[in-house]
């Protein structure tokens, strides 16, 4: 097992929905790269904790309840000529899910559907790059499929 840096990782977006929520379905889509990404954030399935306290034993029993695939907060240098950023801005005004593909430096690929929940521009000081924060909320298919991982 080898660790690696995030350098070289890319994210791409498609307005299309895959025919199937698996690697073949996602791979068949056409994607537009999102440029000038400086931070992808984090994501991953997290379960809600369900507890039960039987009076006979006094101990709390713990179970996994519903899950959430998480959300990503993308940081980008704002480029109004970038087709990927333009598509994400359009998606921020839509209730539809969009398809995403993250390709890691080592070749692993992460596919998922998400809603673009926000696209906020930031105009900082004189020594800062005009940027945008883009919030993606990962959704789950009706069959319970969230993030599809294809290891290199």
**What Rg do the Cα atoms give?**
18 Å
Cα-to-Cα separation, first versus last residue: 12 Å
Helix content: under 10%
Query: What overall form do the CA principal axes indicate?
Result: globular
Number of E-state strands: 10
H/E series: EHEEEEEHEEEE
Proportion of strand residues: 35-45%
- Give the biggest sheet: 8 strands, antiparallel
Q: Number of helical runs? A: 2
Mean pLDDT equals 96
Give the uncertain stretches in residue-range form.
none
What can you see in these coordinates?
With 152 residues, this protein is mainly beta. The protein is built from two helices and ten strands; from the N terminus they run βαβββββαββββ. Strands 1, 2, 3, 6, 7, 8, 9 and 10 form an eight-stranded antiparallel β-sheet that branches. The chain has a two-stranded antiparallel sheet with strand order 4-5. Strand 8 and strand 9 form a beta hairpin.
């Amino acid at each position: 097992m080898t660790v690696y840096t995030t350098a070289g990782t890319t994210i791409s977006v498609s307005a299309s929905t895959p025919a199937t929520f698996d690697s073949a379905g996602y791979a068949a889509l056409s994607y537009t790269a999102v440029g000038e990404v400086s931070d992808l954030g984090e994501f991953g399935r997290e379960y809600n904790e369900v507890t039960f306290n039987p009076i006979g034993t006094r101990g709390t029993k713990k179970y996994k309840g519903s899950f959430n695939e998480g959300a990503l907060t993308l940081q980008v240098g704002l480029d109004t000529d970038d087709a990927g950023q333009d598509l994400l801005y359009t998606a921020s005004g839509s209730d539809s899910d969009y398809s995403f593909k993250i390709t890691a430096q080592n070749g692993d690929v992460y596919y998922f559907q998400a809603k673009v929940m926000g696209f906020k521009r930031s105009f900082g000081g004189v020594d800062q790059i005009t940027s945008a924060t883009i919030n993606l909320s990962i959704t789950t298919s009706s069959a319970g499929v969230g993030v599809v991982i294809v290891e290199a």
